[in-house]
Specification:
about 140 residues; mainly beta; L,D-transpeptidase catalytic domain-like; 8-stranded mixed beta barrel; about 10% helix; globular
């Protein structure tokens, strides 16, 4: 049975968007992580999270800058959207970061994600090179 990644956005602030990532195999949840994105800014390139309540096709790639990551295809009017390693929202340009926990790492008043590299590697190991991503809002 094919595995699927689902992101449930739970907090949409003016500086960032937080959520939970779940990997399902059929109806069984097999993994859970945290997500961090930029705030909603009308889906504008490099400064907004991507539209929710949609399903996207994802494909693994290796970036010279970011290492192991995945492209998110089918985002309307956008290009180069990815799921990649990042601990701080300032490291994002419209992409999605994954981590183990939420915490304010640098005491700047924003919640960040921890263990991003380890978490993303595990997610990609579970999902393989091609998978579906569905983003929903609470």
């Amino acid at each position: 049975m094919k595995r699927e990644l689902i992101i449930l956005r739970i907090n949409k602030g003016d500086r960032q968007t937080l959520g939970y990532a779940f990997i399902y195999e059929g109806i069984e949840k097999i993994y859970e992580a945290k997500t961090m994105e930029l705030p909603w800014r009308d889906n504008r390139q490099f400064i907004s999270c991507i539209p929710a309540d949609r399903t996207y096709y994802c494909e693994e790639y290796i970036s010279d800058k970011l290492g192991r990551a995945f492209h998110i295809h089918g985002v309307p009017n956008r290009y180069s959207v990815a799921g990649h390693v990042a601990n701080y929202s300032r490291q994002l340009k419209g992409c999605i970061a994954f981590g183990k926990n939420f915490t304010d790492i640098d005491n700047d008043g924003l919640v960040e994600v921890t263990s991003s590299r380890k978490t993303l590697n595990y997610i990609q190991d579970l999902l393989g090179k091609n998978f579906k991503l569905t983003i929903v809002t609470k």
